[in-house]
Structures are given as structure tokens and as C-alpha cells.
Amino acid sequence: MRRLFTVTLALAGLAGRALSTPAPLRSSDDQSFVARRRKSLGFGHANEHAVFNSSPYQITTNSFLPLPAHTNPYVVARSFLSDILAADNVNPDKHWVIRDDSYTDKNTGVTHIYVRQIVNGMEVSDGNMNINIKDGVVLSYGNSVCFFGDSRRALMQFMIAATPNTQLATDLKSRYDEHINAMTVTYQSSFVGDHATMMEYIDNVPDAVSPVKAKMVYVQVPKPDGSTALDLVWKFEVEMQDNWYEASVAAIAPHRIVTVVDWASDSPLPHPSFQTAPIPPTTPSPLPASYNIFPWGVNDPSEGERAIVQELGDKLASPVGWHTLPYKNDPQSDNIRQVGGSLWRETNTTWGNNVFAHENWEGRNEWVYNLRPQGAASKGDTSEGAVFDFDYDPKKTDSEDALNEAKKYIDATVTQLFYTSNMVHDLYYRYGFDEVSGNFQQHNFGRGGKEDDGVIANAQDGSGYNNANFMTPPDGQNGRCRMYLWNTANPYRDGDLEAGIVIHELSHGLSTRLTGGPANSGCLGWGESGGMGEGWGDFLATTIRSTSSYSDYAMGAWAANRPTGIRNFIYSTDKAINPSTYKTLDKPGYWGVHAIGEVWAEMLWVVSQKLINKHGYSDSLFPPAPLEDGTIPTGNFYRPKEYDVHGKAKPLVPIHGNSLIVQLVLNGMKLQDCHPSFFDARDAIIQADAVLTGGENFCELWEGFAERGLGVDATVVGKTPWGGGIREDGFKVPTVCNGGEEDPDDGEDDDCGFFGC
User: Can you give the residue ranges of the FTP domain (predicted)?
Assistant: First the structure.
């Protein structure tokens, strides 16, 4: 629960430092249930002129026609850009650049091109286009392009607003020039194509834990008359103890704060009671390690027992296993390239290519040398790796001893966090969250994307209680997951042991990197898009724990010690249990991203059951392991392989409904625009099905969304650049789903059109 910034910056938020003494036990119905709140800024505006066009008749330009299927997609993109910009009468001094995080999805064959607007040689930080291309055809595109100082002073204005330390804020105001003069600035030029960008690095910034990155860009700002202007701003990346901000501050005094995105995403807080290239042969063969953990699919200690599980890691997603990484990418190796002739470091602790897991009792930013469990050598079998077998049996104690009791079992909880985080990495990889699309790995095996960004996973983080959060900077910078203890019961409950919370947090990294491209972490900062960032995490966590026998599920119930969990409603297809619809977003209490996310997750849950009813249920979400030559067998997971008229293999299609919806959700994230609305994300999922299956599930998808008010006749009226408006539920589906005939390409408004009103 947060108090968010308004336009006048009247915001407080989750704040405070690590607790020096154990927090008192709280009843789960106590209004003061959350022991610590982290201050967080997050606001901005939606550009009213932004569009996401995902139906052929919506893609109207002067003369652009599909090019031959073999045409390089970058050539298609440049041709399309030239045409669509000409249609908007773009002047010669308005330019664009194709970003270097554009990529082709090897599973779907769709190329995702990300474009940034350049004006007078400078970026428009929210002037984005994403163009989705396959076989010479533009499938869809999103467009928020607009046509028409001293960095330290701007930064100081932001730090005054952002710091949770009120005494420091007062000191910054009273000794303003003194603090500014203490800041040092260094400069670095970088080039994208023939376009140069100057980056500043500002050091000695009060309350920042690392040098602040700064560059001057343009940002689109709505004006009172409804028009849009370009304002020159300083764009900052500010890493603080509990936050990691991307902020735009006016370059001209008085340095108004224009937009803020917090790359740190909190766990939902409790409510009061009311085909693939072969693996490079030079990589080492991993040994299977053994872990005493709650196995994959067991959400928390209330659902099952711990067991010894031997795990090698997915051969495709983690080709060297979970405990090996190159010395050159190892934060502990101090630029050592090899040891004893080997380029690879093999560890017997919770340290590897995907995840660094450890305690963080002090709640600090330092992590490289934090405490980690040491796996024991396997007994007499050289074909097995380390064994991570640690007791977990916390006892009820006096309140003042509860924290120390929880700390006794840190080895077990770090092991669990390491295991769950690696399983999530491998699962999401198999559905397309790979190196080129911005996943989190220290070494990328020559597959593209930026390296040195494995997940830093803090267990029992001392900076708070009863929460969790994830910080997602752009590709090439480490994501950071912080898991807390919950003082909701005696003994304390450890969030590291509730897989649903861990999956929710790691899914912030997934949705942030896939939406708008891996180099843009600012697309899910607020409003409906920020809410969906929360909703995807809930939906994926719920889908992963689900079984072939349908059940309703609560989010965070074990950690919160509350059967109904930490949401307004549990996730259910029964409207008597969960009545959420699109219109629910207009109700009091649904302005925050977590409440918005509940509605989106509920919609996806209903949609998923439509696909399960049609296609059945897979007991495992993990696809078959690749063969030695790198090809993927279909097994009982994928349909038989199919080929197009050119002899090219089509994307593999999951057979079952639960695996299919996961694939469509991830593919939809790649297709949708930056700052998507519910309508945009819905349309992207429907288009993802059109690309993957030819639209076989068109009606099932529409029926699921329409059941919760997001049908073709759903509307929002009076929406402002900052959100809001009056929503109306729409329960209609396209005419073709009612037995009628409909030509989606005719451009006519049949029941509000092919993809809604």
C-alpha cells in the first residue's frame, strides 16, 4: 500500500530503514499490519496520441504494401517508417533511430523493431515505436512519436523529492549550492549508428548509492489545450537504497519533475480485512546438484513437504547448469580471465550464471561477499555435484527472539530462493525470454543481448518486513530481488519459501524487459500498464502452482497468514467469489497498481480456463529437453512440426491450454506497445495467437476477455494523459464468434471492429 505522488509531488510512500530490533508480531487483521513502507515515486502521463495498431485495416499509410517474404525485416521497417512518417508530414529535422535491442524471436519468427525519435540530434525519451514484422508483413505497431542546463541543479530538485529522509531533504534545501558544488560530473560519448549521445555520470549525489547517469532528451508533455509539446529534460537513472528511479526533470529552471518510473516493484501488500543452435562445444558439462527444498509446483509449506531434488537445469536455458559461469563474468574474480587453464568457474554455493542468492540481514546494497550456503560434496559419486541439504524447523519463541530464530535457517531459505529463481529463469527462457530479448544472465553464450545482469537475490532482506520487491534496470544491468521475513505468525514466515511471491517478483523483470524492448525499462511505470505489470506476476504465479483439477487460488496467503491472501479477492472463475470486471477499475481503492493488477490477472485467469477447456491441461509447463543437435522434440507437449510454403519450420505450438496461454502472454508482451492499456495488451495476446496458430483461439480469447467486461464494446471516456476516465464494461464478442460472418479486413465497425472500439 502506498501514498503516491500527485502532479504537485504531494507523495509519501514506503519508507524507513532496516529495523534494528525485531518487529512485534502483528495480527493479520491489524490495520498496522505492514511493518515497513518503502517510499516510491512513480507518475507520468499517457500520450493521448499513442496508438497500438494490430489489425491489418488499421495499418494505413500512404503507399506501404507488404514486401516479399524473404526481405530483411530491418529493410521492411525502414520502408514502413519512411512511409508512415511521410503520412504525418514529418519535417526533415525530425528523425528516428532503430535501437540496438531490436531482435528476431527465434520461436515465432517475428522481428521486434524498436525505434526512438530524435529531434535536433536529441532523443525524445518517450517517443517510441515498436514494429512487429514477419515474412515481409508489418503485423502490428505501436507509435507514441510526436511531430510538431546544469544537470546537477535538475538532479537536486529530484533528490529533494525522492529521499525518504526528511532531515536530509531539509538539509538539501538549506545548503543547496554547497551540495551541488560537491557533486562531480564526468562525460562519456556513445554512438548509435551515426548519432552521438553524451552521457553524464554525476557522483557524490546525496542518498544515491552509485553515480547517477544523466542525459538530455526531449519528452512529450500534454498542454491544457489538448496539444502535445516537446519539453527538454534531463533524464536520470538514480539508484537509491530502496529504489531505482528513471526520472525526467525539466532542463530549465525551476526544474519541474515531469515523469518518474521506479524500476523497483513491490510485492502486493496485505489488504486490511474489509528450433535452436547447438550449445557451443567449449562449455563445460554441468554436474547435477541436489537440493532439500519445496519442489517446483509446491507453492508454500502449507501445500507439501520438503524433499531432496536433483536438478541439472534446463539444457537449453542453462547449458552449463546453475553453479558455473565464466571468470570474465564473475563479480568475485576481479577481471581474472581464467584459472588453471579453465575459463569457467564452478562453485559449490548459490552462485552461478543466472542467480546470485545470499542473505542480506543488514539491508545493504553490498552483496558480492554476503553469506551463502556451501553445498557438501556428494558421497563417493563423482558424477554428482554438491548437495544442499539444510534443516528447516523454526520454533515458536518469545517475540523478541523471533527474528534470531528465523535467521538460524538462512541456509535452507537461501537454497530455496536460489532453486526457485533458477527454475523461473529456465521456464521463461523456454517460452521466449532469452538472451536477445533481455533475460538475466552473466554470460549469454554468444546468443545476443547484453551480459553481466544475473539476478541478485536477497533472502531475509533486513530493509523491511512483510513485503518483497524487484528492481529492473535495462538489459546489461543486474536485476535485484529482495525477499523479506513476514512477522505475521510465530515463528516468523519467510517469503523466500512462498514460491508465488518469488515468481511474482521475478515476473516484473520479465514483463519490463519484454514490453517496449530490453533497453527500455520505463514502459510499465504507472496506470493500467503499471497495474498489468503486477497482474502478469500474479497470473503466472497462479498458473505455475495450478493443477489439472481446477481450484481457486489466493495470492500470498501463507506468508500473510491469511486464507484469503493479500488481494481484494482470490482468483476464481466464479463471479460470486471474484466479481472483478473492467469497470471495477473505476471503484474507490483501485487507483493503485496492485489493485489494477488484480483485475488484469483475473481476466487472464478466466481466459486461461477457456483454453484449458478447449485444449486440456499439461502436468508440466516445461517443454521437452533439446536433442544433441539442438532441435526440440515435440513429445506430448507440442503439435507435430509444420512448415510453410518456403520449407521453413513454423513456430512450435503447445498442445495444452495452460502451456498455450503462457506462450501467448509472453508473445503478447513482445508485441504490445510501450505504456500499453488493457485494450492494447488484450489485442496483443489475440494477435499473438494469430501469429502462432493462425487465430484458432480467436473466439475463446474474446469470450474470456468479454466475460470480464473487456469485450469489443468496452469503452473508456474522458481518459486524461495521467489515466482515469469513466470505463464501461463490454460483454460482446465479434460477430463471427456468434455464428455470423465478419471480414476483419474491411475496415467497417462490425460490433466495434475486429479488435474492439
Answer: 101-145
Residues of the chain with CATH 3.10.450: 51-143
CATH number for region 289-522: 3.10.170.10
Res 5: pLDDT: 36
Residue ranges of the chain assigned to CATH 1.10.390.10: 559-712
Select from 1.25.40, 3.10.450, 3.30.450, 2.60.98 the CATH code of 51-143.
3.10.450
Q: Any known ligand binding at 504? A: yes
Is 508 among the annotated ligand-binding positions?
yes
Identify the sign of the CA torsion 720, 723, 724, 725: positive
How far apart are alpha carbons 438 and 670 in whole angstroms? 11
The C-alpha atoms of residue 464 and residue 164 are separated, in whole angstroms, by 14
Specify the CATH number of the domain 559-712: 1.10.390.10
Which range of 124-138, 328-342, 676-690 scores highest in mean pLDDT? It is 676-690
State which H helix or E strand residue 118 sits in: strand 111-119
How far apart CA 255 and CA 236 sit, in angstroms, is 13
| Residue 266 is assigned to a ligand binding site | yes
What average pLDDT does the segment 660-675 reach?
A: 96
pTM, 2 dp: 0.76
Q: In sequence order, what are the residues at sequence separation of 6 or more whose Cβ sits closer than 8 angstroms to the Cβ of residue 8? A: none
Catalytic-role residue among 359, 435, 498, 505 = 505
C-alpha cell at 391: 534443516
> Could you confirm whether 239 is annotated as catalytic?
no
- Residue span(s) of the chain under CATH 3.10.170.10 come to 289-522
DSSP one-letter code for 254: T
Of 52-61, 297-306, 588-597, 635-644, the poorest mean pLDDT is in 52-61
Helix axes 593-615, 698-707, angle to 10 degrees: 140
| CA triple 628-338-317, angle to 5 deg | 30
Using DSSP's 3-state secondary structure scheme, residue 471 falls into strand
